[in-house]
């Protein structure tokens, strides 16, 4: 139940956690396992915490990421670290988490092993929760990525990306693999991101604002000021 004493971002996180848990329950009533694909960054922390409190058969839930920085899991920039700290706690710790990194030096070297690993998951995903940056990127599909075109068009599930505006190399699920999910959510907060979304809705070039590639998934938007 939504806690009305909480701020709008916490209420939004709670509503999204309830919707995500419901999607997983529905799919788990038909299948042995269900898969949840999550984004990192700063936005999803209260959502992860609210989701960890949901009553679910967590041991039948697979969790992976839409994208990851090519850093160790102990690095503060690691999305896996965020998921482990804020979601995989208490009962939710029995979910199976599959990360997108290896010990290889570069994502180009690790991409094959990551592909093999994520192909063991229960696709199609029940739900993909996307985030979005101020530049319209989602997952690690950035407007200035050298591999943006590939990420938007390849039928490979995962690819390495290099982006001049970003300090780390990255690995990301492709648009094709993200599209295949049964449900899609965009989780964003703040007026700046609402304006970026409004811009995205008024055009159709995904190379300019990669979030556009997901606007007709259909995409349920969870936004709070
Ligand atoms: O780099 C990333 O940024 C986006 C948005 O992050 P936020 O900090 O603005 O919430 C995120 O969706 C993506 O997974 C992450 O790697």
TrEMBL record:
Name assigned to this protein: 6-phosphogluconolactonase
NCBIfam families: pgl (TIGR01198)
Pfam families on file: Glucosamine_iso
Keyword set includes Hydrolase: yes
PANTHER family, sorted: 6-PHOSPHOGLUCONOLACTONASE
Glucosamine/galactosamine-6-phosphate isomerase domain location: 9-215
InterPro entries for this protein: 6-phosphogluconolactonase_DevB, 6PGL, Glc/Gal-6P_isomerase, NagB/RpiA_transferase-like
Gene: pgl
Catalysed reactions, semicolon-separated: 6-phospho-D-glucono-1,5-lactone + H2O = 6-phospho-D-gluconate + H(+)
Superkingdom assignment: Bacteria
Alphabetically ordered keywords of this record: Hydrolase
Pathway of action: Carbohydrate degradation; pentose phosphate pathway; D-ribulose 5-phosphate from D-glucose 6-phosphate (oxidative stage): step 2/3
Its EC number(s): 3.1.1.31
One GO MF term attached to the UniProt entry: 6-phosphogluconolactonase activity
Sequence similarity: Belongs to the glucosamine/galactosamine-6-phosphate isomerase family. 6-phosphogluconolactonase subfamily.
Keyword Hydrolase: yes
Chain's role: Hydrolysis of 6-phosphogluconolactone to 6-phosphogluconate.
């Amino acid at each position: 139940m939504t806690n009305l004493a909480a701020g709008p971002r916490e209420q939004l996180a709670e509503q999204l956690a309830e919707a995500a848990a419901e999607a997983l329950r529905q799919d788990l009533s038909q299948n042995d396992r269900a898969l949840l694909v999550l984004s990192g960054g700063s936005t999803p922390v209260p959502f992860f915490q609210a989701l960890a409190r949901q009553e679910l058969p967590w041991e039948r839930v697979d969790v992976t990421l839409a994208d990851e920085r090519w850093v160790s899991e102990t690095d503060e920039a690691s999305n896996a670290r965020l998921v482990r700290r804020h979601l995989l706690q208490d009962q939710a710790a029995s979910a199976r988490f599959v990360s997108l990194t290896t010990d290889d030096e570069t994502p180009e070297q690790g991409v094959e092993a990551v592909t093999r690993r994520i192909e063991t998951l229960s696709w199609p995903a029940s739900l993909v929760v996307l985030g979005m940056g101020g530049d319209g990127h989602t997952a690690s599909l950035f407007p200035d990525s050298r591999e943006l075109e590939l990420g938007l068009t390849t039928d490979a599930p995962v690819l390495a990306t290099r982006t001049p505006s970003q300090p780390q190399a990255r690995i990301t699920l492709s648009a094709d693999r993200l599209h295949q999910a049964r449900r899609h959510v965009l989780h964003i907060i703040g007026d700046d991101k609402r304006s970026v979304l409004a811009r995205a809705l008024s055009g159709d070039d995904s190379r300019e604002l990669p979030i556009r590639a997901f606007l007709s998934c259909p995409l349920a938007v969870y936004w709070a000021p």
